[in-house]
Amino acid sequence: MFLRGNAVVGQSGGPTAAINATLAGVIMGALDAGDGAIDKIYGMRNGIEGLLEEKLIDLGSIFSEKSMFDDLALTPAAALGSCRRKLPSDYSDAIYSRIFSVFSEYNIRYFFYIGGNDSMDTVLKLSGYADKIGYDIRIIGVPKTIDNDLEGTDHTPGYGSAAKYVAITVKELLRDCSVYTLKAVTIVEIMGRDAGWLTCASALPKLSGGDMPDLIYLPERPFDMEEFLNSVANAFERHPNILVAVSEGIRFKDGRYVGESAQSGNVDVFGHRYLAGTGKVLESAVKERFGCKARSVELSLTQRCAAHVASYTDISESVETGRRAVGFALEGKSGCMVSVEREQDRSLYSIRYNAKNVGEIANKVKRVPDEFINESGNGVTDACIEYMRPLIIGEVSPLYENGLPRHIVIG
Amino acid sequence: MFLRGNAVVGQSGGPTAAINATLAGVIMGALDAGDGAIDKIYGMRNGIEGLLEEKLIDLGSIFSEKSMFDDLALTPAAALGSCRRKLPSDYSDAIYSRIFSVFSEYNIRYFFYIGGNDSMDTVLKLSGYADKIGYDIRIIGVPKTIDNDLEGTDHTPGYGSAAKYVAITVKELLRDCSVYTLKAVTIVEIMGRDAGWLTCASALPKLSGGDMPDLIYLPERPFDMEEFLNSVANAFERHPNILVAVSEGIRFKDGRYVGESAQSGNVDVFGHRYLAGTGKVLESAVKERFGCKARSVELSLTQRCAAHVASYTDISESVETGRRAVGFALEGKSGCMVSVEREQDRSLYSIRYNAKNVGEIANKVKRVPDEFINESGNGVTDACIEYMRPLIIGEVSPLYENGLPRHIVIG
Fold it and tell me: What's the pTM value of the predicted model, to 2 decimals?
């Protein structure tokens, strides 16, 4: 059933606090495969780019001690390095023959790619090319994204930890903002270009103390400045300290990003525009209308790498997702992504792992559904909070050295 | 020796992760005073403002269980509320007679004010007025500030926790920034208007893994844009991912704030200008010179309220500082601030508490000394790191509820 040969694993796209937990799972899965199925597990440096340059490292020789996996699982960001390279649609492009000549040279029969939306596109294309040329290889996508916007899975590894960081930080900011009696609006800008999942997490403090942001805006609903300012005015009737959580990617009805006036106009290699300044735009609007203190806090990069406060549920699921990727490959699956299904008939949170056809996942975006957003479009429902709650449960215990969590760096 | 009567405690100035630990210490100290020295310990809402409006709450009746102090000590921001009110220099102002009529009405004989520089000014003025009118009261300042810029003390409660948060976050950002091979500059903007203590903490990752920011800029040295860009160019010769830590308050040689071009021009009640945008100004300069990816991350409010990752050393010292405030007052001290002295003859970190004349402390700023800054003015020395190291040692264990740390809210 399984192929005899070597495996390679890579990481792609933006870093998360859990992507190395998944890497640890893949390495452990490969090393434990047994029966000589997988001889060596290579890591590619900076994703597909390192593969092209044959920057492959023998992970089995590096991870010689079990305890190293514990450190790896709690080290944020991609330990193998990452890239944002998109493969061309045209299979006659020389890059494909180059990739497969490296596969052949290293006898690679298992390919694991840990990433988000764009990385699943790579998995899809490489699977297609392998079929086309008849190269026998198992190609598996392993999900990770703080954005939680992948189709075909209940949630994505990395989301729970980012959500926990957002929820804790918003809870702390709620306390911070409550200390003065002066009227003030604090706007917290949270990552999320097309989907508001991470911004939804700002509502989680409701389950621990009762406080939550007064207003929450997601990219799933068009943003109306006048309605926003009226909602702030209403909130001021309840208390002087308003906290607003907002996704970076909210847009006006005409499709323009709210942050657009303050953005650089740059685009990344996938054509996505860099956004910055959504919070600043709202801050200015509030100052102008109310003449009160207003400030914006952009959680920025910290929300995707705050491994010190990762969710135990997320980290353990991320490790298991990596292990299962190897398991599915050994079973003969290819062109698949490991997905997570929530057992709906259980009162206690419990999940099952599946392998989903990556063609149904790549290049799609799963948005926050209607039933998770309130009628006014400025808050989330209890159903949304109940969906998120189990994903942030549990705390990790990194080892501390001189007061700081220990990280592992692959030299 | 001690006066018979009631005590009142207030919090003032910006919130920190440890200011409630100090409040817990004051309350415990007052409740344990014994012999009927302190009958009641009142909390004033929003500092001196609540005192003027007689918004006083009986803390002894609220903190009826010992375990509540554990939650309070790990709740960020001022649980009693805060204010930024500065008392006038003119003792004939009606505010003084109003304050002392409230003291008299409630038989207040002990006044504890937890705050920073500006709060020590309040302690100084109230002590002076009490002497002037011959009202028998013990007035003690209890330090807190993430800025660590108070004279007369080795360090300030609140600094260790903020420093730990900054150090952990920078360590995580160092990992995050290392994943791509493209040239990129990440600028981390850290709080600190006049003193760079908190920005120094960005160097602490050196002691845990070896990485640290390539460049560190403090307000203690004039900032030169050309020298900065040349230093970035030099750093690019070593690696593609540059991380720069910078205090919000850095200024050019002519005294202008670097962030000035991007600031709102607003001033707070003490006449301090709000700064924002130092990181953005450097980001633009880097983009223009190098045409590379550049981004800035402003740690903003999160660095002063991240109680989930507080330093155990800081929290336990903060509690003790509150207790000692009560102890010094009972001994007859007044017009003093509790200070911390590091035992220099010990190889292991150890401190002593003193009561320092607040006249020597108020309205002064302790800056980072020359021996803590490198010759080029773009980094810190090992002596600086060794000074900070013990202050971030130890982790706290807040109780988690639904995945989030429990906070106590005084209703």
Answer: 0.95
